[in-house]
Structures are given as C-alpha cells and as structure tokens.
Please model this.
Amino acid sequence: MARRLRAWPLVAFVTAGLVLTACSSSSSSSSSGSGSKPKGTANVAYAASLEFLNEKVFGPAFHTAKGFGYSGRAGESGALEAEIAAKAIAPNVFQAVGGDNITPLFPKFTKWYVQYAGTQIAVAYNPSSKYAPQFQAIASGKKPICDLFPIMEKKGFLLGRTDPNTDPQGRSFIYMIELAQTYCHLPSSTVTKILGSPLNSSSSTQVFAETSLLAHLQAGQLDASSTYLSEARQMHLRYILLPPAINLGDPSMATQYHNASITITGNVTKHGSPLAYVMTIIGAPTSAGTAFIAYVLSPAGRALYQREGYNLLTPTVTGASSAVPAAVKAEMGG
Model:
C-alpha cells in the first residue's frame, strides 16, 4: 500500500549547543577530549505506542543523564521497517513491537535485536459514549468481560483500530477478538461482525493511523478503540482490562496465543504472540544511538518503563550477539 513518507524528525528534544540532524551519519560524533560534553543525537524511530514515554519521559531523562541529544519519530512498526528498508529514513535506533518487524532488515541494516519490555491489549472507551455505563460495569467487574463483544457488534457502534497490515497493535486487536470468540464461546461470526470488513482491510472506516487513533477517541469520535494497556494508563483513558487468556500479555500463554492468526498484504500469515518491545541499532553504531539503547537497559531506564506501566522482560538478544556494542552488553550483564 502506497504511503506518504513523512519528514524526519516528527518530534525533537534538544538543548543549546546540540544540533539535531536527520541522518545517522551526522550524529556519529563522540566526545573529544577528557571532560568534554557528549556530542551527537540519538535519532530514534519507534512504535507510536511509545510516543508519550519517549517524548515526555524517556527522551528528556536520557538527555539529562547522558548529555546526548534526542530526536524521535513515531509510526507503525511495519511502516517504519519498510521506510528503513527503502532508505527513506535513517535512524540510529529502531524500537518496534515484535521482532518480526526487525528481522526483515537482517543483515543489511542490522544483525540483532534485544527484547526488553512487554505490554498487553486493552479496550479504551469514550466516557461520553451511550455505551459508557455498560463499559464501566464491565471494567469494574459488575458485568462479565464476555458482555463486551456483543456491544461492539451493534449497528452504528464506532470502533477504532489500526491497520493490521502495518501495525502490530492492529493485528493484536484482531487476535484478541479471535481468542475471545473461543474464550467466551461466542458465535463463529463474531470476529467479522465486529470488524465489519475483511480482516486485512486497510480501508475500513475503523482503521486509523496509530499516531492519531487515541486522539479520535479523546475527541469523542469513537465509542471505543484498541489500545495497549501502557498507553491507556499514561494517557489517563477509561479502559477495560482483558483476561490473560486473550490480552496477549502473558508470555506463558504463547502457545494459546499462536492459535489466533491473520493473513496480511503479500499473503503473509501472522500469528498471535506475547506483546514485546524490541530494539536495535540501524547501520553503523553511533555514540548517541548506543548510549540510548544502553540507557533503556540500565536500571534507571528500566525503572522509567516500569513506572509508566510496562512489564519488564529479561533482556534477550536475537541474532548475532557479536554485533551488539559492548556498552549495550554491559547493561545486560554480559
């Protein structure tokens, strides 16, 4: 699907004396001389669900702690992967949901990634929706979670989600409904009735860009939307917590999650799996990019993730561990 390429960067954080640049090559400078301030900028392309964390919390904290500049670009993980592969953008660091958005970049752009944090799917809702009393009853446990899905089938119900072809959240929301169909013993037509279109449709009126989905909900244009639990908490949304059997947040239930699937553009079949954030360095490591990843994995960085509602996972490298910079390995205890 053709997509308009957006100018880099979307958001930037900088202090006097630090110059933000678009290409990784221009941020590869390092400190010169003992006691000099770090030079360069960590240009980070990241899954849009990290936008609040990166722009409001982590970017400023990283700059304060390490002295490097920070520049962020939010987008759907799959779309960012395609833009990197096409050389339309050249970030130092790429943070995605799911390693399957990084492995297509092997070995030309990177040879490894590290898994480090997790989240889960939730359903956010508009407190002004006519369905809000029912949502509140489900969220509080006064009504069973399985009452949620017939509500979403109702004619005129305004549901928001993201494109399953390019965004892991879009796929995960569909996996969740598929799993709920079995978990709640719902009719076999439940998934298609809720989605109102083919599973892999990118033109459905329900589909919004990940960067704007929750803004539509907050503006009162939707009754409910998909969200990650971490996002819902950070943005102080009303939300419905889902059971582990369907929320894709429990690593011990990976086999069960795998039963959900969707075939996306290119006739590629994807399966449900525990939701995990992964990251890597794109191209030659830079001082700023390496420092950013090392800070994510540091005790201070992990504390920020935990505070903002993410589940901490044991950092695990996939791919060529020999290509992982020493500073990153040091934060992993290796």
Observations:
- The chain is about 30% helix and 20% strand.
